[in-house]
Amino acid sequence: MKKSRGFGFGIVGCGMIANFHARAINDIRGAKVVACFDAVPAAADRFAASQGCRAYHALKDMLADPDIDVVTVGTPSGAHLEPAVAAARSGKHVIVEKPLEITLRRCDQIIRECEKHNVKLSAIFPSRFHQSSVELKRAVDQGRFGRLTLGEAYVKWYRTQAYYDSGAWRGTWELDGGGALMNQAIHSVDILAWLMGPVAEITAHTGLLAHERIAVEDTAVATLKFANGALGVIEASTAAFPGYLKRIEVHGSEGSAAMEEEDVVAWDFAKKARGDAAVHERMAARVSTAGGASDPAAIGHHGHAEQFCDVLSAIRDNRAPAVDGHEGRRSVEIILGIYKAAETGKVVKLPLASDPALAARKKK
Asked: What percent of the chain stands above pLDDT 70?
């Protein structure tokens, strides 16, 4: 692909997350925000004025712009499919905010269309690119934990009622796809599965305990059995005042490690390695933000920038992005499995045979 002029980006959805996309793109040499589109024309106009890019009031017109190589999708979660597919059919590479979509069928349709039209697809999980996550993954791959025994993800965050009241799509099954799990904890679900391997079985409880006028959960607890035999726990909440840093723990017969946000807070192995002291030194006190624990805007954009760089590298090298569509689908399947386990009170085995029906949830 000829890229002498660099990469032009088009942003679909001009809400809060679009600002983080733009900051990340602006940090990348040779990348530029060229245009934007939002279903609300005034939102596109405001965003374009702030970024110095073109505003389009029709998606098809933006996708016809020859200066756009990559489209990022930041619409409400249950509205990712349509612009992602339209971008793929227009020959644009596609980056989709988490979750990839809210059902497996919709995830699969995005993946198929991108493969059919030979464009790259990446689901945004910037925590994968934090150095602490990379160090943990390297230790797992090197077998330093021995036999993996326990893996845990804790996301004890807080969202006000005003947060849910701020948008009609928030807290709905149709467009949010779920609550504390699908919207907030999905980053940690992704990291946990990336480190521990495939999930085989799930049991769960969910509840709406501290918020009103929403249909989804604000608190969830799930127990997992991984395919390798290890056990796990996921705790997720937007009802834990005042909100704490998200935490991932990995334990095995020969080692344990934990991270909070981007900070490695535990790094203990039976067999010491030369780089262990350096990990402690480099990773200590790396928390630059509250990670969105109590404020959804209190996140950094550096993980997005690293991931966007990976996508551009994948385009140049004609390889799959580090977090491609299939990787993005995995966390959605786990979360849907948790919802199914909570609804039925039964053990749910993965992979899911089909999407759990949304009809019952929509009636609640």
From this structure: 90
**Is residue 296 pLDDT above 90, yes or no?**
no
pLDDT of amino acid 167? 86
Instruction: Give me the residue label for tokens 């596109």.
Output: 44
DSSP state of 184: I
| Domains recognised in the chain with CATH numbers | 7-124+301-323 (3.40.50.720), 128-287+330-349 (3.30.360.10)
What pLDDT digit, counting tens, does each position of 68-115 carry? 999 999 999 999 999 999 999 999 999 999 999 999 999 999 999 999
